[in-house]
Design a protein that fits this description.
Elements: E1 7-12, H1 18-27, E2 29-34, E3 39-41, E4 46-48, H2 51-59, E5 63-64, H3 73-82, E6 86-90, H4 98-101, E7 108-112, H5 124-130, E8 135-142, E9 152-159, H6 166-186, H7 220-229, E10 237-240, E11 243-253, E12 262-266, E13 269-273, E14 278-286, E15 292-293, H8 294-301
Parallel strand pairs: 1-2, 1-6, 2-5, 6-7
Antiparallel strand pairs: 3-4, 7-8, 8-9, 10-11, 11-14, 12-13, 13-14, 14-15
Helix pairs in contact: 1-6, 5-7
Amino acid sequence: MTDAPRRVAFFGSPAFALPVLEAIRAQFEVVLVVAQPDKPVGRGLKLTPPPVAARATELGLPLAQPKKLRGNADFEATLRDSGADVAVTCAYGKILPGSLLTVPRYGFLNTHTSLLPKYRGAAPIQWALIEGERVTGTTIMVTDEGMDTGPVLLQEPLDIDLHWTSVDLSAHLSAQAARLIVDALARVGTLSPTVQDHTLATHARMLEKDDGRVRWTDTASQVYDRYRGVYAWPGTFTTWRGRLLKLNQLHPTGGHGAPGTVLSVSEAGLTVACGEGAVLVATVQPEGKRAMPAADWWRGAGGQLGDPFRADA
């Protein structure tokens, strides 16, 4: 953007987007920050701004938190009046109407946490882990009216460490996105967009509560990959004698038996059989109680070797 002032409107909401905002702010003029509206949080349901909105307020940046975008003439005027040359979206959380996309001179760029067209949608980080991917990455794309369907400007892979949870992977992808978007912004107007092959697209839907339930007939690796993917939310859980039990820490180990049965107990935890192999469950959290070592819980619960966990409620 050597021929124009480098003025950026930034659309983002969660903590994931903060490094991206900071990287942009360090090299460009952020003329508007747009985030989701404040939401009730915690037991007291205190109205709380999303992290990006809170940071914008700290920095004294112009902030907008529209409840809706489609048909919102006031917000469209706010974006136009900001004088932004280009807009960037990063985990903003709303699909942009076509009327907004042409307001900035260079349109909208989006940071997406997968190697598009794979894992379009709301939860690419989580599903990449659940599906056992060993490589993911960041895509900088031109935003269109579809869901992650726009042309690709930049793309960079990232190897996934076998010990990373969704929290770990998010942190690495956030840093990668921050670096790549600065590169893309510096070259806006010169990068050649590449149309995605839509026939190769996969969908990473938003997680549901039941995605955290252990499928004991899965292999130990699959159980572990799901645990990594749902780590931040909804967490991993199973059913014990009709009550939910959260499994806070587990990893694959050796063992063989009927899926879901407890094979052995040690101070390290419970060895539980899967469809293939087994997992060692180190800590658990019964309903309404704090997390505790799995072996301590087992003794208190009166468990016997061969007792089964259940995949259904």
